[in-house]
Amino acid sequence: MARAPFEIAGVQVKPGTRETVEVPVAKLYTHTPLHIPVEVVHGRRDGPVLMVCGAIHGDEINGVEIIRRVLKNSALRHLRGTLVAVPIVNIFGFVQRTRYLPDRRDLNRCFPGSESGSLGGRIAYLLRTQIMENVSHIIDLHTGAIHRFNLPQIRAELKNPETARMAEAFGAPIIINAGLREGSLRAYADSLDIPVITFEGGEALRFDEVVIASGVKGVMRVMRELEMMPAKKGPKAPRKRSETAANSVWVRADIDGIMRPVAHLGQRVRKGQKLAMVADPFGETEEAITSPCSGIVICVNNLPLVNEGEAIYHVARFDELGEAEKAMDYFRSTYENEVADDAVVPVHPWDEMQK
Ligand SMILES: [Zn+2]
């Protein structure tokens, strides 16, 4: 029996075809209608229905490029099941280059939302009724906040075995078993029993090639794991790709000042090791920021101007730190020499000189 068409916003996408559908959201006060663009790739054969979405925080743009590259992949012709790609969920924030909605709400705290609620509630309602409630799996793409660069990592509620399987398949070096935050897309999907993982990598308003390349690879690996794509020929990955953190801790500045970073992203650090120096502009008072534990640096603050109490470094702790280091080594070796045809190149020539 032929597969039924996939229906979204009144549009029927036939099996074996793909279509860009404009899901109407609202009107701007200029009378300009606003849509969330969605690309549906509806495979000929039955299989999982995977939603991949980005920019629910409007300034987190790496995911938009990850989705663009996934959609270009010629292997999608052999897709089993359906890919529902939503590169820009928070269109308001994306246009304004901000994380939030025009009423300063965080769309990722507005789920499940309602038809008559706030703007965020209405967009959440639309997203869940038009898309989320018709999919079987979700990958939600994020970056660090502004000035904060996240090491590529997966956050997921690992007690759901299907979620854990997706998290492992994605192959980011670090997995964080992260609790669900009320009102988030992830919490709502989990309440519907839809396996969902969040990918975090890079920082807001910036592209980063390694983050983007690892995100693209991760999405494709999950699709292969779910048998939406044929498995790759050749031997399986010989080495350890991911290690799950026991927990993680934010390291904060004790004094106000100007920060000079010492430790870098992905570095293994010991308890008490210097992460950064903070000094006043004359260098009269100077203090070292040290790591409260051994672990791997999974986020760094790139802004040198810090206030007392500000989060500067995020360090993940592991039961087996050596295993996490192996996962980091594998990650580095995978992306060291691999350059995509349409790679985002570093714009500073001295990035190359420093190698
Ligand atoms: Zn985010």
What is this entry, summarized?
This protein has two domains: 6-226, 3-Layer(aba) Sandwich (Aminopeptidase), CATH 3.40.630; 246-317, RNA polymerase II/Efflux pump adaptor protein, barrel-sandwich hybrid domain (OB fold (Dihydrolipoamide Acetyltransferase, E2P), Beta Barrel), CATH 2.40.50.100. The chain contains eight helices and 19 strands.
Main features:
355 residues, alpha+beta, Aminopeptidase, OB fold (Dihydrolipoamide Acetyltransferase, E2P), 13-stranded mixed β-sheet, 4-stranded antiparallel β-sheet, 8 helices, 24% helix, 32% strand, binds zinc ion
Description:
- GO terms for molecular function: hydrolase activity, acting on carbon-nitrogen (but not peptide) bonds, in linear amides; hydrolase activity, acting on ester bonds; metal ion binding.
- Keywords: Hydrolase, Metal-binding, Zinc.
- This is Succinylglutamate desuccinylase.
- With 355 residues, this protein is α+β, with helices and mostly antiparallel strands.
- The chain has two domains: 6-226, 3-Layer(aba) Sandwich (Aminopeptidase); 246-317, OB fold (Dihydrolipoamide Acetyltransferase, E2P).
- Helix content is 24%, strand content 32%.
- It is built from eight helices and 19 strands.
- It has helices at 62-72, 91-96, 119-130, 161-170, 185-191, 209-225, 321-336, 349-353, and strands spanning 6-8, 11-13, 17-27, 33-42, 45-54, 80-86, 137-142, 148-156, 174-177, 196-202, 243-245, 247-252, 257-261, 268-269, 274-279, 286-290, 295-301, 305-306, 311-317.
- The strands form three sheets. Strands 3, 4, 5, 6, 7, 8, 9, 10, 11, 12, 14, 17 and 19 form a 13-stranded mixed beta sheet that branches. A four-stranded antiparallel beta sheet has the order 16-15-13-18, with no helix packed on it.
- A hairpin with a 2-residue loop joins strand 1 (6-8) and strand 2.
- Helix 1 crosses helix 6 (209-225) and helix 4 (161-170) crosses helix 6 (209-225).
- The longest helix has 17 residues, at 209-225.
- The protein starts with 5 loop residues before the first strand and ends with a helix.
- The model has no long low-confidence stretch (mean pLDDT 94).
- Zinc ion is lined by residues 57, 60, 142.
